[in-house]
Amino acid sequence: MVLEFIAMSREERCAWMKSLGEPSFRVQQIEEWVFGQGVLAYDDMTNLPKSLRDSLASQEVPVMRAHVVAEKPSDGTTKLAIELSDGQVVEAVLMKYRYGLTLCISTQAGCKMGCVFCATAQGGFVRNLTRHEMLAQLLLANASRRLTGERVTRIVLMGMGEPLDNYEESIAFVRIAVGPQCSISARRITVSTSGLVPQIERLAIEGLPLTLCVSLPAADDELRQSLMPLARIYPVNMVLAAMHAYARETKRRVTIEYVLIKDVNDRERHAVALAQKIRGGDFHVNLIPLNPIAESTLEPPLHSSVRKFQTVLMREGIDVTVRRELGTKVHGACGQLRGSLRK
Which of 185, 90, 179 shows the shortest CA–CA distance to 140? Predict the structure, then answer.
């Protein structure tokens, strides 16, 4: 692995090559292998002199390993369990759509938010990931598809953890991803949050046209607080105000992620209440039928309830879709990531 290399600045890379007695153009060669072709082992960089490859390989300390725990099930999802240098494991999910590959990236080992419908939250919080550990997830995903010639074209920060709780490193990773080495459009990067209001307000003025998704599983504070402890700090109206401000500042529509839970928040009255709260905003509602987790007795809604909820929102003039189910069979769907090497 070359995590040390990707963590360096260009100047540091050139100084490193110079210390090895190599010309500076070797840096560009290695960058092309790593970022352009997804090659993550120095031994495989065949246009480098054999002596240099041997030297680099001898210095290299494996700091990260990727384990494909479930690849290409019927829905085209691949889940990678990635072991970090300290033994922590995070999961990244590669999803294939007709327009290309989307990678769901983790930003933390564990999560502090405590949402009752999320497996990651039930395991507690361990630590933040660095920007380079996030970047390595992207590089490992591309490396896993090198033989097919496919590359990740969209990124969603929706994996383990709350991206805006690890604000500095998450945004630093985004800036690397949109830079010349990865060249992913900011408009193809989505950041999901459980509703950290100050960070949403800060994100609005970063100058990055990202898609913002906000988890809002209820329109009233009492019900929302029973599902998301964070709601006790940031009530619905405060979160909505931040979302309105984000949409105005960035000229980007904000997505509301509404997790539908049987007999909890999936009734017609819940849909009407949501519509009344968000009407007039530049918002899109993405309905997400609950993905079951072992730690909870909460159940997915009936298909008829999902259709009825969608119909009510449409009748109320709300732009709404139902999220396509991906990754459930490999425990890689929304809310199911735990950080495990098991299949």
Answer: 90
Give me the torsion for CA of 184, 185, 187, 193, rounded to 10°.
30
- Catalytic residue from among 14, 104, 213, 334: 334
User: For residue 1, what pLDDT is reported?
Assistant: 47
As a 3-state breakdown, the chain gives helix, strand, coil percent values, each rounded to 5, of: 40, 20, 40
Tallying the residues shown for the chain, one arrives at 343
Q: With a threshold of 0.90, does the pTM exceed it?
A: no
The Cα 306–Cα 172 span in angstroms is: 37
Domain-wise residue ranges, the chain: 3-59, 65-330
Cross-strand partners of 190:
156, 211
Is 334 one of the annotated active-site residues of the chain? yes
SS3 258: strand
Q: Is 91 a catalytic residue?
A: yes
Q: Where are the alpha helices (DSSP H) in 159-302?
A: 167-177, 197-203, 221-227, 236-250, 268-278
Q: Which of 14, 22, 91, 257 is catalytic?
A: 91
Per-residue pLDDT tens for 36-61?
Answer: 887 878 888 999 999 998 888 777 64
* Residues facing residue 156 across a β-bridge: 104, 190
Pairing relation of β-strands 152-157 and 125-128? Answer: unpaired
Whole-angstrom distance, CA of residue 18 vs CA of residue 12: 10
What confidence tens digit (pLDDT) does each residue in 92-105 have?
999 988 888 999 99
Q: How far apart are the first and last CA of the chain?
A: 23
DSSP strand E in the chain: where?
65-70, 77-83, 89-97, 100-104, 108-110, 125-128, 152-157, 189-193, 211-215, 254-260, 283-289, 320-322
Q: Is 78 exposed, middle or buried (0-12, 13-18, 19+ CB in 10 A)?
A: buried
Domain 3-59: top CATH class: mainly alpha
Is 3.20.20.70 the CATH classification of the domain at 65-330? yes
